Amino acid sequence: MPEYTLSKSTYIRGLQCYKSLYLNKFRPYLRDKLSEEQLAKFARGHVVGKIAQQLFPGGIALSRPGKPTAEKTSHLISEGFPVIYEACFISDDVIVALDILVKHEDGYNAYEVKSSLALSNVYYNDACLQYHVINASGLKPEKFFLVHRNAEIELSESEDLHQMFIFTDVTTECEANELMVQDGISQMLEVLKRDKSPDIFPGKHCMHPYPCDFRGVCWKKISKAEQEVLLEK
Ligand code: SF4
Questions:
Q1: Which of 40, 91, 177, 195 would give a disulfide with 137, using CB separation of 3.0 to 4.6 Å?
Q2: Which architecture does CATH list for 6-200?
């Protein structure tokens, strides 16, 4: 038995569509292939994440999110370790791996790095979930920051690293949405207990915030003309 059911990515998937959440868990082989553009985006995110770690140098990097990594994270925190990359937490049947956890005088601050040039609702939802899971696992972050690229400054070794990123304190939003996150998790866990996928008809939600990778299945029998109508609704 796995020690958790949901992750950050499956929670975000579930916010978009319960059917996508269900299919991803029980019929992952039906997913559409990742496009070159999506693969490049993932690679870019990885590179930016690595660069951003140097905003708080000297940390210990954890890998492979899972119960042993969550236990290691907990141990490092109890020892007062100052900087942890990919700190892992599990609670409420959800696992998250936070990009950077940094000790300050009053406790730990959390930093989630995004390679984008602007923040979107998805990133706020991501932060709210992580804040909730970290808090429920026993460590209340003093502050939670979303960190994204500064559009006006190129990523380069010659630039001041701190000028390349913009920090947004989203702690207030995270605290305000705790109950909503808890409710969302409960509903998703219920969906995953069903014996068949939720009956959800395709529509505009299939494209927002991300183009769903089950469109190959769900949209297969819908004509081009009907698809255009559905996307306009
Ligand atoms: S294609 Fe649309 S309806 Fe089908 S799983 Fe994805 S979001 Fe849901």
A1: 91
A2: Alpha-Beta Complex (3.90)
